[in-house]
Design a protein that fits this description.
By secondary structure, the chain is of the alpha+beta class. About 50% of the residues lie in helices and about 10% in strands. The chain is elongated and about 55 Å long.
Length: about 140
């Protein structure tokens, strides 16, 4: 049983952002301050990555642990209310992420996916990964 009213649940769900989350902004600003220029939520790239370096064919996603199913096999049992809906939704998100990755990779893109908490806790490590990929793509262009 849900602990909040349907109206409150609806209001809570409407407040959840799909783009421009705090962690995306944190990563984007850090890259911008280092002089890297990118596109945010580029609709011309399949899957609409959070950040894209189109010239280098690099797509970066910052995924929410809940909505993208981090440790899904062990964590899915923690969902108590509306299990059928959430299991179906999150499993479809996981499948969509795989489809997007496969498509982009088949088109010569390099894909990096970070968990939100990873960006928050290890921003420098995330930036280093991106920088290494940018450097590598300049040395070995496809």
């Amino acid at each position: 049983m849900d602990r909040v009213t349907p109206q409150q649940r609806s209001k809570n769900m409407q407040a959840i952002k799909s783009t421009g989350t705090k962690d995306e902004i944190l990563l984007a600003k850090a890259l911008w301050h280092l002089g890297y220029r990118y596109r945010k939520n580029n609709k011309t790239v399949f899957g609409k990555p959070d950040l894209t370096f189109k010239k280098n064919k690099i797509a970066i996603f910052v995924d929410s642990e809940f909505f993208h199913g981090k440790d899904w096999v062990t964590q899915k049992h923690r969902i108590k209310s509306n299990q059928e809906y959430w299991h179906k939704k999150i499993e479809r998100n996981i499948q969509r992420d795989i489809e997007v990755n496969n498509y982009l990779l088949s088109q010569g893109w390099k894909v990096i996916r970070f968990w939100s908490k990873e960006v928050k806790k290890n921003l420098d490590s995330c930036i280093t990964q991106i920088q290494n990929l940018i450097i590598k793509s300049k040395i070995f262009p496809k």
